[in-house]
Amino acid sequence: MLAYIIRRLAYALPILLGVNLLTFALFFMVNTPDQMARVQLGDKHVSEEAIEQWKAQRGYDKPLFINTAENSEGLLTDTIFFEKSARLFVFDFGKSDEGRVIGADISERMWPSLAVALPTFIIGISVNIVFALFVVMFRASAFDTAAMVLCVVLLSISGVFYILGGQYFFAKLWHLVPISGYLAGTDAIRFLILPVIIGVVAGIGGGTRLYRTLFLEEANKDYVRTARAKGVSETAVLFRHILPNGLIPILTSVVVVIPSLFMGSLLIESFFGIPGLGSYTLDAIQAQDFAIVRSMVFLGSVLYILGLILTDISYTLVDPRVRLS
Amino acid sequence: MNTVVLGKMRCGGFTGRLQTGLKKSGWLKAVSAVTGRFGGAGLWLAGTLLLVGCSDQAWNNPHPESEASANILYSSFSERPKFLDPARSYSADESRFIDQIYEPPLAYDYLKRPYELIPNTLTAMPDIRYSDADGNEVDANSENIAFSTYHFQLQPGIRYQPHPAFALNENGESRYLFASAAESEQYRSLDDFTEQGSRELVAEDYVYQVKRLADPKLLSPVRALLSDYIVGMTEFSQIASDTRKALEEKAGKQAWLDLRELSMAGVEAQSRYDFTIRLKGKYPQFKYWLAFHFFAPIPWEVDRFYHQPGLADRNIVLNWHPVGTGPFMMTRNNPNEVIILEKNPNYRADYYPAEGSPEDVAAGLLDDAGKQLPLLDKVVYRLEKEAIPLWTKFMQGYYDRSGIASDSFDQAIRVSSDGIGLSPEMTAKGVTLEKEVVLGSYYLAFNMLDPVVGDKGDAKSRERARKLRQAIAIVYDQQEMISIFANGRGEVAMSPIPPGIFGYQSGEEGINPYVFDWVDGKPQRKSLEEAKRLLAEAGYPGGRHAKTGEPLVLNLDTPTGGSGGSAMQNWMIKQFKKLNIQLNIRGTDYNRFKEKMQTGNAQLFQWGWLADYPDAENFLFLQYGNNGQVISGGSGVNSTNYNNAEYNRLFDQMQLMEDSPQRMEIIRRMIAILQRDAVWASGWHPHSYVLNNHWVRNVKAHGISKSVVKYFAVDTEQRSQAQAAWNAPVLWPIFVVVGILLIALLPGYRGFRRRQQRRIQTALTNTTPAEKEG
Fold it and tell me: Which residues cross the membrane (chain A) (predicted)?
């Protein structure tokens, strides 16, 4: 397995390089260093000299990929690409265009992201599995049909609607929770209740439908019929036979998401004022701070690749038939 | 125990009420059964409810319980500040924080109108002396003025806020000095520096800051402007740049350059409390710059402290942790969540003003006269990016002050024949409205370098273009735009100068006679026929070229994006359609827009200007020829590229004068030139509306100064009562949800049991006698 993991990590390098090159090229096509400088320096009394100095201080006055003015070593290293993007490979995120250390910001902001994403993820999965099993128990009945209609309805509603509706009813009308905000420590719980509930409810439609399909597939297999033939109770059939076998495909869709939980949710964090990495990315896009955006895109790619590797490993743990080679 | 006291839910109150309700309805047993089955979920729900229910404060209170009844002002910010360094910051979003911390030599009187400068950390207003090129003192009105020297006398005894940069060890040396990043590794944030100190403000600190403004590394936005005036500033910039380069080659990029070792010819500390700044020529507007945070003092110890190895890598920099002598100090700066200012324990003797107008007296603005400032212990600014949560929290009493977003305007404001006032809902809550005319203008303008609408070519074509601009100025109904898109919050600009500034004229005298007539005591826009006549004279009868017959198409560049899609853009197209002119709106991102302006590639455009200081010069320089965007390479503020010799001559004359009838006459002539040439098709001065909850006192809008929080006061008792009254939790939805779940679960559970039973029965029924025997 170790050889497999090393091989997968080696495969990841060209992928990350490609992602890096692509984002780098896109950002510099959209915005030149001069434009970045103007955004950061503001509107009033901005001289050409100030723009040149801003670029020089941040290394944006160098060539993009090849520095012909340098010798063999500096040819590639004394360039914007090497200094701004290649260093990401050693997780040196550098400074944002406004001068803050990105690494320090990320380590500070990932905790609020996790505080929302983790309970939403765990409770969401649990609720979806319970609902799906419940529906499977009553499969091919009127209840099943009604539940699926409800799921499609829930699935069709925009996430923003859940957020605005939740804020209106729970916070504005009924005064049960703060409408938005965040405090550190145990005080955070008051602020997390509503985003977590909304995150869970918004995911019920899609999750329940997917898991129901997976469980139904298992429910029609021979070993389930055999178990029933042996006289095993319906509860035992569901929980001892269908659930463990149904969890294998669920695991594949779930494990890949786990590392990305650090990245936070753009929508939830923005609407609820939670100072996580999701809103960090969104703010950076709005402020055209490409140093942050590049870092977050790279980090997202790394975490996604990590998620895929973890998924492969988890296969071997839950399904003895699978061996990594 | 089943009573909710003004929304404050006590632990016993909640559980008592819950149990009473359940016992009465006889559902307790059923609930117990269900929670027994679904123990985990029940426990989680109960735990959560208990956690919030056991608190003394309202459930939806976004502030920590420990702050209940504290003397705190709660406010918000929507944009995270980029720069908190007084040499670098040039935005109102940043000034609202650092202007409470840093103290420049001058300040604005809080209550007096028109705006008046007063000494801040000085004993008196600076003494200004003029001299000729030979150094001989001359009169203020002399034509031979070569230099102006400002003498500043500081109040003794002013002390800085407590800060680790001032902490000393037993030998009197700095407590925190690190030779390497490894030594500072243990200090992850400013809070980790447990020892703090302070010291007295001295003249050298102001000198040090002026040198910082000149240091090219700091990229101060006013360096280029001030270099034109302060003697030796340009030379100092070069020296600082060269010295830094040599230092960085030797000691690395983070090395601290001690600016005390470099001298600037025009800035000098004469004694501990006395310093001078020498300017080239006469620059009356310099006094306004002295009320900006750019001229706030920075002690060298602080600059050295933040330049120590390793600190910048943890965002421990002056740009994020300001240090000043002001009424407040920043004790928490998390621009992603909250910024907290607390009362500076070392703040000097500074008292609430005792003079004000009769209106101020009537409004209770002098009730705290003579009290030591600041009146608040703490100010908490929370990040609020969305308008709905901000408004909701204000209405719930959790924010003391709020602006009015368009979505909330109808709820907050009632427009009637008597004018604009608060809605009955706001009046019932005791909310007060704070109105002011923003010292700025938004405008639709022409690029005077454009061959169609501009001022190019021979006299005949210039005259035709002028008539075209005048025709457009008549049909562009700015008042309608303000009513539709700004909820009436603004007024039509007759000139670039807004109300409240010397040079502004109201009434018939002030109207733009090329666009309006004075009818029945108010301005009335000229007729469409008049505009059509001008258009025909311009060579476009009926909106078509007189010779070719081709329709007149004009291009508007706007940074708002879209191409005619938005309601605003459709409205603009309709305005031009009145003259049968086709308006092509070219939406672009702000960067591209600025590029077009810099290169003069626009025809019509929309932009705005917010004043730096309350002087006509700061508005009329928007059309000064030397400030043209194109000829200045993008650094000028004259985005129209207007260049009129007579206007330029009058401007040169006017900018050197103090306010006087002569100056007023020159301003009138300048405005008349602008109106005739119709450089702006239209403009408007926005109005700012701020709402205050009834427990907020001493609030008076100030168009220029942001250093006003020290005057604010809150009645915390009234606030607590209002918060409790307005936020009683509504519990019935919880019971409804629980009820619905039970209704759904119980039949489901019964169905499940029946299903299992049926399967067993079916299995037994279907079993053959032979199987039974087997």
Answer: 9-30, 116-138, 145-169, 189-211, 247-272, 292-318
